[in-house]
Amino acid sequence: MAIKNKGLIGRKIGMTQVFMADGRVHPVTVVDVTPNVVVQKKSKQGKDGYTALKLGYQDVHKHEKEGTEPRWRINRPRLGVFMKAGIETPKVHLREFRLKDDAELDGIEVGQTLAASDLFNAGQFADVTGTSKGRGFTGVMKRHNFAGAKSSHGAHEYFRHGGSIGSSAWPSRVFPGIRMAGQHGNAQVTVQSLHIVEVDAERNLMLIKGAVPGPNGGIVYIRRSMKKRNATKAL
Fold it and tell me: What's the predicted TM-score (pTM) here?
């Protein structure tokens, strides 16, 4: 039975390039997709009221010190989630993936592992979600791509400012949503319809064409494309 789960948790390793047989080169992002463990099944008929799979990724470190009992580096409430599910090794990262109906839960059991090759194939498209790189407090030119003020006609000390943000007499306030300087990056970003170049089942790697949000080592969520669900593309 085909697995109908919509996505997996992975870790961005970095970018490289792939040369095709005809000499073309494609920039790709390498994502480590170590098999995810099914931690919980949520059913629309149950107390949750919706259908979803909760997956776990990356083993929790076990602290072993002489003279003390070995213990997992995780708090007890979260450890109880894995103990209840019968999973021996807790996971660091948890993520829910919504499903359409309860029928898609058939064939999936708690404790089962899902690999990248179970859900994705080369040539398909995927949506990748991650946390973008944080750039701190930035001005309007870097944050919103403002042009800045002109440098001629006696202008001074006003080259990278944002300009007027509202009237003085009426309405005597600044409207919500005015683009100003502030926190840039460090936000959830989704890039849609990225082409999957290769799925390495032996090393649990996926090669995705183009850039993926976040820094190297960041956690990403790979889902089947919403806009190109049944589309495939050969390189």
Answer: 0.88
